[in-house]
Write a structure and sequence with these properties.
By secondary structure, this protein is mainly α. It has one domain (3-191). The protein has helices at 7-26, 34-63, 71-94, 99-108, 110-127, 131-137, 139-144, 147-162, 168-186. Helix 2 (34-63) packs parallel to helix 9 (168-186) and helix 3 packs across helix 5 (110-127). The radius of gyration is 17 Å and the shape is globular.
């Protein structure tokens, strides 16, 4: 399977949740508090895309399809897009871009601070996701892109703090992250260059 020919599929898979969210928003099916639901859905899919990005190398190795590794960048960019939309929806729909309220939320609420740091950690990754950046930065690119693990950890912490009903969802997210981390630790040498 020539995965590069199928790279459009990774873009489509990343876009599908967004199409669903837009459909539910337009058709008025986001429940009694649509703004809050929209923010939650975008945050949830941010974490799913981030973990999917981290799963691409193990999936490529386990399935024997090396080309799947190139999908890692696509899902990483989708994660950044969803996190950015999550932040924009939160700041716009829930806070109305009120500077005083925004400043207070960003300095006094730990779960917001952790979420913001996770988003900021993804910025340099998104900005250096091109092949040109990888060539220009060389080994520094590999080190820089390890920030994805910090972003994932902070995203998990943020998600666990904002979880409103039980911790089942958080346990699933954490379990997936731990399996991916364990796989990386056990296969570290073969994944030395990320």
């Amino acid at each position: 399977m020539k995965t590069q020919q199928w790279s459009w599929l990774a873009w489509l898979l990343g876009a599908l949740p967004l199409f669903g969210i837009v459909y539910f928003a337009v058709s008025g099916r986001l429940g009694p508090d649509p703004a809050e639901t929209l923010v939650e859905l975008l945050g949830w899919w941010s974490l799913v895309m981030l973990l999917t990005c981290l799963a691409m190398r193990p999936a490529a190795q386990m399935l024997g399809i090396p080309g799947l590794v190139i999908w890692r960048r696509t899902f990483g960019l989708w994660a950044f897009a969803y996190v950015s939309m999550h932040f924009m929806a939160w700041a716009t729909l829930l806070l109305g871009w009120d500077p005083a309220y925004l400043g207070e939320e960003l300095t006094k609420r730990p779960y917001i601070i952790v979420g913001m740091v996770a988003w900021l950690a993804l910025w340099p990754l998104a900005l250096t996701s091109t092949r040109t950046s990888r060539r220009r930065l060389g080994q520094r690119w590999v080190k820089l892109h390890r920030l994805v693990f910090l972003a994932a950890l902070l995203g998990l912490v943020h998600q666990s703090w904002v979880q409103k009903s039980g911790y089942g969802e958080t346990l699933i997210f954490v379990s997936v992250a731990l399996v991916l981390l364990l796989y990386r630790l056990l296969h570290g040498r073969s994944m030395a260059n990320k």
